[in-house]
UniProtKB/TrEMBL annotation:
Keyword terms: ATP-binding, Cytochrome c-type biogenesis, Membrane, Nucleotide-binding, Translocase, Transport
Protein name: Cytochrome c biogenesis heme-transporting ATPase CcmA
Gene: ccmA
Superkingdom classification of source: Bacteria
Domain ABC transporter span(s) in chain numbering: 11-216
Pfam families in alphabetical order: ABC_tran
Organism listed in the record: Shewanella surugensis
NCBIfam families for this protein: ccmA, PRK13538.1
């Protein structure tokens, strides 16, 4: 992993506006995300959390405004940004016709990584003994754990995670929180959505961005 400068700004949202179906989800939203930050995007269902994460990841465009990486618009440094980014969306990107080990192997090779031990990582995510099981035959939580395994061998500084705790049991949530803290302490950042409270990550470490749209 590239050595990050602690407290340097990694990602900035500059006056982001997102409109869906003629509804303004957020308007001129601006914030900085620094190395060492763990940032939770909060808001009710439909508030625009996934929309914001997708814009931050460069997967969709805002109505107006810019996402900056190292103070440059991400469109002008796409490759550098992608190399620093790990995005896990709602759909975990796990192929059900591959085994858990094959899925990880496929993803790491796609990201250009070498020197990884899938068996070791599957052990870390609690899937020891399921290495050769087709992921289509795994439970929802085990499926999600297969996807999350990518976090254990990631060169990316910027993790953008859409509801990473979905279907994960209490012990798994604690392990993930520890992983996020370790990543932040190394100078990375984690930007995530979740509808549940995080217990391990104290209020000093956790920043919150509130999206206010309410369906009611
Ligand atoms: N590509 C799209 N085209 C049209 N509308 C969209 C699109 N993507 C999202 N929306 C709408 O934008 C609103 C916000 O969706 P989004 O998925 O960002 O919300 P969310 O805060 O992540 O919700 P949840 O907590 O339920 O996951 C929703 O009403 C959704 O229908």
């Amino acid at each position: 992993m590239a050595v990050p400068i602690i407290n340097s700004t990694l990602v900035s949202a500059a006056k982001l506006t997102c409109i869906r179906e003629e509804r303004i989800l957020f308007d001129e939203l601006s914030f900085d995300i620094n190395s060492g930050d763990i940032v939770q995007i909060e808001g009710p269902n439909g508030a625009g959390k996934t929309s914001l994460l997708r814009i931050l990841a460069g997967l969709s465009r805002p109505y107006s405004g810019t996402v900056l990486f190292n103070k440059k618009p991400i469109q002008s440094c796409r490759d550098d940004y992608q190399n620093q980014l790990l995005y896990l969306g709602h759909l975990p990107g796990v192929k059900s016709e591959l085994t858990a080990a094959e899925n990880l192997n496929f993803n790491f090779k796609l990201m250009g990584y070498s020197n990884f031990d899938c068996i070791d990582i599957l052990n870390e995510v609690g899937l020891s003994g399921f290495e050769d099981s087709l992921t289509g035959h795994l439970s929802a939580g085990q499926h999600r754990r297969t996807a999350l395994g990518r976090l254990w061998h990631s060169n990316a500084n910027i993790w953008i995670l859409d509801e990473p705790f979905t279907a994960i049991d209490k012990k798994g949530v604690i392990i993930l929180e520890q992983l996020f803290l370790a990543h932040a302490n190394r100078g990375g950042c984690v930007i995530l959505t979740t509808h549940q409270d995080m217990n391990l990550i104290d209020h000093h470490s956790l920043k919150k961005i509130q999206l206010d749209y309410s369906l009611i």
